[in-house]
Amino acid sequence: MEVIIQSDRQSACLLTARMIAKAVRSKPDLVLGLATGRTMETVYELLAEMCRRDKLDFSKCRTFNLDEYVGLAETDETSYRFYMNKHLFGRINIDLKNTHLPNGRAKDLKEECERYEAKINEAGGIDLQLLGIGQDGHIGFNEPLSALRSRTRVKALAPDTVRQNSQFFSSPADMPRRAITMGVGTILESKRCVLLATGENKAGIIARAIEGPITSMVSASALQLHQHCTAIIDEMAALKLEKIDYYRWIFKNEPEWEEYQ
Ligand code: GLP
What we know:
alpha/beta; Rossmann fold; 7-stranded parallel beta sheet; 3-stranded antiparallel beta sheet; 10 strands; 16% strand; globular; binds 2-amino-2-deoxy-6-O-phosphono-alpha-D-glucopyranose
């Protein structure tokens, strides 16, 4: 895994948005894997601004989100479809037909998971997968002990996640206890991954994911197996990393990152 450290939250989000923009420019029909959560809101705001100001063109892009809660309608303000329409799709020139999230209200959830995997394959696989990380190390909703080769499926949410995400619901009891999520194996098949994490409260789990052993107890540690994964983190989230000077050196000196200085 390649680790890129940025001074603060805004710079980490800006670097992520610029990497996505570069990928969209070099392949207009890019298949983009998307994530939700507070961290991504700034990235989406920046992409919307690039679309408006620099004419970054999403008209041919196709997107696949990592996950969706079971039982929530698209119109429900706490659904991830609602989040995506609000923060990104409604603000860029993407064709909504080309945006995909699992349907958490499908009658047959197992069939829906298979359909979702097939759709990703039909699109030729994911070119660039954006990822956040939960306090328990989840990517998507791959909670601890998710098999490292798991595919899109229904996953019961861990108590930590319920605690962390129930703030978005009017009462904790309203929060669904299950979600459809791409599997760890699905994520590992993407051609490139970008993991974005900011803030001191992510420092412990980031150190375990990046420098710790690969374990299904921390799903994000499976990214160490990915062919091309870049972790972009701010100084606060980097606090517990051992090889921090090496990572700083890479950003300053490796040719790939020159254009982002
Ligand atoms: C949710 C999503 C994850 C995301 C996480 C991070 O749980 N299912 O994909 O990584 O939020 O959230 P935040 O950015 O708010 O810390």
